[in-house]
Amino acid sequence: MDFKDWHWQKKHSLKDISNLGLNFISTNDTLVTPYLLSLFQSDKIVKQFVETSKTDSIGLEDPLFEKKFTKSKGLIHRYPDRALLVVTNKCFANCRFCFRKNNWNSYDGFSLKDTIEYLNNHKEIREVLISGGDPLTFEDESLVRLIKAIKSIKHIAFIRLATRALSVLPYRITDSLLEAIKPYKPIWFSIHVNHIDEITKDFIEASNKIIDSGFPIVSQTVLLRGINNDAQTLKELFCKLVELRIKPYYLFGCDRAVGNERFRVKIEEALNIMESLRNNISGLCVPFFAFDVDDGGKVVIEPNRIVSKQGNAYTLRNFEGKKYIYEDTQY
Ligand code: SF4
């Protein structure tokens, strides 16, 4: 056995953990890698992957209205200059709060031919986000074939590769994978990480490998009640990420998928957390806070710094809560 072999990890992933004596509710979609299981001493990790309280049934089946913007199987075009390609419904581990979890059947693959045709016909698209599921569940050859085909389109300036692997199976980041995708730079990695307990020695080794190979990394975090909904927890996470050369990019409000209600955090509480982050840590460590509104896409919100406006003069609130008058330009 080689614990650090990602194929071994995948093969030995657990679907049933009822005999582990953990406090959880059995579901038929549990999926945990042996690596992830080794992190289960942290309840902040357990709660992300295993049901620990009764699930609810409030919410939407397709909270981002992705069906409405699907142009060909797997290809979603919602924003002007970028497209999203959902290449698989397979992950290394299943997150309880995933917004696609109720709709997995409609994400079971994509058509390369139709994707390339659509991208070729839409010159306004500069960026393709390859997501899933987790595209790193693909073997290197399949992933490279896909990336190569997309990068052969002249107006596609760069690719973003979304993955949860660093948190749940960091051994997936192999030298051979990074070597194989090097010819197709720029490729940005977009990682999903929610708690500092996910940042292990193996996570760090994998993120260093990616960055040292010339691929920048941004992170996405979901704001989750009972897991990371306090400023101190997020401060630790975001500051650590920047230390590792990873830019915290988005903090997302948990999407209103069926079964997610107990994870959701009120907007007012989220804004207070953002205010505290903004006031206390470097701007480099502070992501955008955003959530998705039906078919309207992402909305970024910030605590309001404008107290009032009179004519040309704005009254603004600084990071200490003090008010200042700022004269706007006359031009
Ligand atoms: S890794 Fe991503 S796609 Fe997979 S279950 Fe988690 S949130 Fe959903």
From TrEMBL:
TM segment ranges: none
Binding site for [4Fe-4S] cluster: 91, 95, 98
Residue numbers bearing the N6-(pyridoxal phosphate)lysine modification: 298
Domain Radical SAM core, first and last residues per copy: 77-284
PROSITE patterns: RADICAL_SAM
Any Pfam family the entry gives: LAM_C
Cofactor field: [4Fe-4S] cluster; pyridoxal 5'-phosphate
Keywords noted in UniProt: 4Fe-4S, Iron, Iron-sulfur, Isomerase, Metal-binding, Pyridoxal phosphate, S-adenosyl-L-methionine
GO molecular function: 4 iron, 4 sulfur cluster binding; isomerase activity; metal ion binding
CDD domains the record matches: Radical_SAM
Family of the protein in this entry: Belongs to the radical SAM superfamily. KamA family.
Name of protein: KamA family radical SAM protein
Originating species: Desulfurella acetivorans
